[in-house]
Design brief:
Structural class: mainly alpha
Number of strands: 0
Low-confidence stretches: none
Largest sheet: none
Order of helices and strands: HHHHH
CATH superfamily: Nucleotidyltransferases  domain 2
CATH class: Mainly Alpha
Radius of gyration: 15 Å
Number of helices: 5
Strand content: under 5%
CATH architecture: Up-down Bundle
Shape: globular
Mean pLDDT: 94
Distance between the termini: 15 Å
Helix content: over 70%
Length: 134
């Protein structure tokens, strides 16, 4: 049941990120709101993946980077997606610990790709849960 709740939270947070990315025109307030939603989607998604790997594969992992690499190892993600997930993790760590206008603009420009990646991974996890419960 913990996995279902984690996945639902991650899907909701990622959906809210998508909503923020569709807002026009983009100004500093919308950019910052999207970055905050990215942080929430990141946290919820890696924790959902962590729980997925625990329940579906018996793996107990502690860090986002390890979760993404292991997700690749079990076939949940490909190599290119894993590289993007690691870059996503780096961007999340940068934006949380250091706020800089130029960095915020750079990260914001990458958010659509991060959004698609998280949405794809979450969809695969949901599909994997369905195939093991049926």
């Amino acid at each position: 049941m913990a996995l279902t709740k984690r996945l639902q939270a991650a899907l909701a947070a990622t959906g809210r990120l998508g909503e923020a990315l569709r807002l026009e025109p983009v100004d500093a307030l919308i950019r910052d709101a999207a970055i905050l939603r990215f942080e929430m989607a990141f946290e919820a998604s890696w924790k959902a993946a962590q729980e997925y790997l625990r329940q579906q594969h018996g793996l107990d992992l502690a860090s986002p980077r390890t979760v993404w690499r292991t997700a690749r190892d079990v076939g949940l993600m490909g190599d290119t997606e894993t590289e993007l997930a690691l870059a996503l993790t780096d961007d999340r760590n940068l934006i949380v610990h250091l706020y800089d206008e130029a960095l915020a603009n750079q990260v914001f420009a990458r958010l659509p790709g991060y959004y698609r990646l998280l949405a794809d991974i979450l969809a695969r996890m949901a599909s994997g849960m369905e195939s093991t419960s049926g």
